[in-house]
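Fold these two proteins, one after the other.
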Amino acid sequence: MVKSCWKPSVEGDAGGCVDGLLWYKDLGQHVYGDFSMAVIQANSSVEDQSQLESGPLSSSSSGPYGTFIGVYDGHGGAEASRFINDNLFCKLKSFASESQEISINVLRKAFLVTEENFLSLVRKQWLGKPQMASVGSCCLTGVICNGLLYTANVGDSRVVLGRSERGTKQVIAMQLSTEHNANADAVREELRSLHPHDPQIVVMKHKVWRVKGLIQVSRSIGDAYLKKAEFNKEPLLPKFSLPGSFQKPILSAEPSLSVHKLLPDDQFLIFASDGLWEHLSNQEAVEIVQNSPRNGIARRLVKAALKEAAKKRETRYTDLKKIDRGVRRHFHDDITVVVVFLDPHLINGSSSYNSPVSIKGGVGLPAAAAAVS
């Protein structure tokens, strides 16, 4: 396999290595401790995007600082997840500058403006690239600032906290994000209450609950064809079109929001796309992190998930690794993992950073193959 390490043109301690379909940053430092990142590609063109930004969280020098983590799991293509990766953090910094603080409202506004701007792009490109209307992305973000973790989420990516139990050496898993997937009873109930006159709002298809029989997530950035009736017509591909029109959006970009006060026993956070959680439970993931060296821990979580994926398909892990992108999607999804360690001394105010850190996961992974003539 070809290995390549590269340094992107970003400030601070950034960089990553590519090994075939795997991208990784084994260990880096953020304002409040260490971090580790990894991405494994399954799709022909990687649809997962991610980033970690540590340092100033606003455009002004006197504004808040801390660490921002984003995991963006695209579907129908990578355009929406890339757009979020290029725009969301900039919007957050802008709103944080206006209010001179990080807050739940700052995150919410950054989400909704990113959504609005992506739908505007879809509208501009509608006649030339109608497929943009069926592209969307889950979006999970966390901001660590002033001893608090702020989270905002649409879709089914997840952040899990590892907290040590006093008096024992055990670490317990605490899920800090709310997911929006139609396979959850509460999500189906929410959809039915929002659309009481639509008996087809959730449909079981291929043994999976889907919104309108099309998509598993009930909230996302993008997916314009399920939010604006103006895109539910030609030149949209027939497989995405709904019979008739609709008056209110079927999917929402309204994020679930939370604030968690970080305690001395809070050891680390695992941010990951659903590709990881399909194969590992929260507790299994937390125990792997707790019982392994920090260096390369995100890669280790990816490997554990791939071993489970291989086992489910009665395939050896060594054989799974030989399967190329595209075909690989039959065994597992793109998987993104960001593990963020929390140093209580740094969390509680004695933190200092030398230079900002800015790193984007998966850069350098293979793009879609060109058509063969």
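Now the second one:
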Amino acid sequence: MERSMVNRLKVFFRKAFRAFADGDDSEARANIIVIDGLDECVDEKEQARILRLIHALATRSHFPFRFVIASRPEYIIRTAFSSPPMSNHTLILRLEEYEADADLRLFLRGEFSRLRLVHPEPIPIDWPSTEDENASVTKASRHFIYDSVVMKHLDNPRRNPMVELQHILNYRPSESNTNPFVHPPDIDISLLKSLLHSIIHDKPRKSVSPVDDLDTLLGLRPGTTASTLVDLHSLLNFNSPTRRPTFHHKSMEDFLTSQSRAGDL
């Protein structure tokens, strides 16, 4: 039965990955199959069987792939990897012994650089500080999942990532019951109301009030207007010759200036 399964898998890989083997540089290229979460296969017998099948494939002379297997060190799995015949063909990398700080720092620098480019608020080129970068690496404790969650939280055009990062780095579980990843609603209705009515009432004066100048007019942190209005580009035109945001259609102005229709807005 197991030999039959090996043959079936061999045919499957041959068909599914023929392009890899047929390439001119197939010998030079590292072809890798990644299996994540082997321990989540709850049947221990199935775990052992999967590992035997992998070993049977990986040790065939013409099989063009290598396997990378990520798993918790459950008994059946760690025993299989530390015992012949798999131990003769296996390199074990224990995450608790792996120095991941350099890789984490590389990941963070790439993500912070991307945020500086794409976020609607102006972000200084020297953000974050070396101290904050080091703190982000230290808090991760060599686990990519922590910094991955942090970056997903910061990657929101409706929030200021500089402020959010400080909330996260300053968080002390023993001192506060608040969760830095729990955030108030993205839309501040009172602020949105102020911005929309500023756009409406600025029109008769014909003054130049591009998005950045609205921050100054209302005493807001630079970039606040851009991040607050980030979801309203279907209603507002930000590309007028004066760079003043204007409504695409007058009906929106009529709506906002009608108390009975707009309510709190």
